[in-house]
Give the backbone structure.
Amino acid sequence: MPRTGDREEHPGTEPESAVSVMKPPSLLDQQAIATLSAGGRLIAISFLTNYGHGAFFHFSALPLDEQIGVSLHTAALAALFGDAELASRLRDRARDRLVETRQREIRRLIATIRFELSDTPSSRLRLNEELAALLEELQVVNASSREND
């Protein structure tokens, strides 16, 4: 006789906690922030060495070639931010793909076990034990993906 909570009547479903939990994409991860910080410092050093701190405040008084240089430094900072953001999104997508792949493997294994072991009461007990172990592993995978956020 099936116990309360057994999923015999719906063999293709998993508990709510086993469903994949994807984090909302963050603007910048830690590596992108470090890259942006280091690159920003390099651009600031280059800017202050070449033009001084007054270049922004007296921009219109600068000769044309220095105005172009100040504009290029500003554009370099914007490009650095865009590159760091893109790299951050690519790392997020790669991590999400790994989590999804692992969850698909676990679901496939769960379906195989349910199909092979659903005939006898002792097999059902073994099935429930295996499913509990697999679902626990899936919860650990979900928890570790949340910790990496």
The chain has one domain: 28-147. Residues 28-147 form one domain. The radius of gyration is 27 Å. Residues 64-116 form the longest helix (53 residues).
